[in-house]
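Exercise 7. Given the encoded structure of a 348-residue chain, write a plausible sequence.
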């Protein structure tokens, strides 16, 4: 004879709380004390209680699922972002439905429309939101939405983002303060808001420093594009004193190109990135970068979305901005010898 299914009443009895409290705890409602929530979740896990998803959806019109639409799911940035989102989702008893569109606006539009009826709310990162009507035309109506690192044409949804301009200014000034006068910048995707703001910060910092000059190289946030940019930098007859890559993955690709050419970082050329992905501290030399709490960014965005879902209506608030922190490691240092002497050699 089969084992009798555990009910919500069994969980309530074991946890010594009401059925209503169990329901609120499992559904992620905020009006449950955290110790009580943990107790209920522990009992439910121990008893292997699993709510009947279909019945719950019919009665509450809730899927207990959050949709997440991102440009990509590959790379440490997105891995950390999803980790932060997932951690908050699991604590609230929610599941995630992930989708990516690999830089194609038609694919993103289709991904957004496909979420209709499947999720209770959406987290979206979109470089196409600046286009008038793009989000309004493709987002399911009345669905709670929170944006991540997305520039809106007409602000209509809460947005969690990074102060990319300030971060790029801080990093550029750090490299200049070390005595480097010629800086190269490896940019990100043309249509990416974060990439454009980091480039703007670099240009503004260079323009504000007497005697400084900058050169720019294309990239796409992937390590291979950083490697290509590193090789292009080495091929120039006017090698820069330092390189600032718009993200850590490109900085690591650039570091590999320099190592292949026999250059030592930072003795021969300084190097810096942006994001502070976990790998940044474990390469040699360890990477100077701008620290962004990527997991925190994702977790806070989901927390805000859950508030909207529970409230049943959108409440537009000012932008939530994370300010990056300069993290100085081994890859940036003052010039080891006079700049003029360094520029007499194209490769070493």
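Solution.
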């Amino acid at each position: 004879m089969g084992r009798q299914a555990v009910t919500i009443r069994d969980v309530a009895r074991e946890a010594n709380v009401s059925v209503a409290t169990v329901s609120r705890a499992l559904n992620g409602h905020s009006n449950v004390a955290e110790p009580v929530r943990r107790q209920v979740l522990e009992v439910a896990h121990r008893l292997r209680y699993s709510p009947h998803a279909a019945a719950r959806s019919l009665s509450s019109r809730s899927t207990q699922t959050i949709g997440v639409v991102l440009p990509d799911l590959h790379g440490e940035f997105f891995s950390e972002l999803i980790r932060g989102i997932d951690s908050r989702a699991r604590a609230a008893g929610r599941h995630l439905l992930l989708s990516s569109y690999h830089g194609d606006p038609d694919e993103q539009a289709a991904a957004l429309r496909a979420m209709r009826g499947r999720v209770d709310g959406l987290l979206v990162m979109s470089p196409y939101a600046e286009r008038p009507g793009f989000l309004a035309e493709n987002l399911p109506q009345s669905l709670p939405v929170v944006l991540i690192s997305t520039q809106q044409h007409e602000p209509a949804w809460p947005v969690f983002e990074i102060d990319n301009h300030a971060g790029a200014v801080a990093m550029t000034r750090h490299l200049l303060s070390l005595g480097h006068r010629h800086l190269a910048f490896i940019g990100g995707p043309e249509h990416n808001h974060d990439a454009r703001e980091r480039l703007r910060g670099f240009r503004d910092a260079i323009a504000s420093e007497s005697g400084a000059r900058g050169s720019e190289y294309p990239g796409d946030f992937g390590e291979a594009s950083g490697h290509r940019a590193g090789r292009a930098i080495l091929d120039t007859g006017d090698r820069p004193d330092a390189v600032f890559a718009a993200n850590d993955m490109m900085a690591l690709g650039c570091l590999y190109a320099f190592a292949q050419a026999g250059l030592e970082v930072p003795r021969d050329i300084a190097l810096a990135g942006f994001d502070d992905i976990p790998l940044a501290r474990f390469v040699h030399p360890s990477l100077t970068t701008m620290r962004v709490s990527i997991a925190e960014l994702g977790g806070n965005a989901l927390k805000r979305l859950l508030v909207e879902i529970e409230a049943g209506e959108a409440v537009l608030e000012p932008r939530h901005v994370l300010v990056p922190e300069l993290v100085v490691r081994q890859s940036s240092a003052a010039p080891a010898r006079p700049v003029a002497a360094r520029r007499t050699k194209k490769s070493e």
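Remark. The longest helix spans residues 294-311. Students should compare their own answers with the one above.
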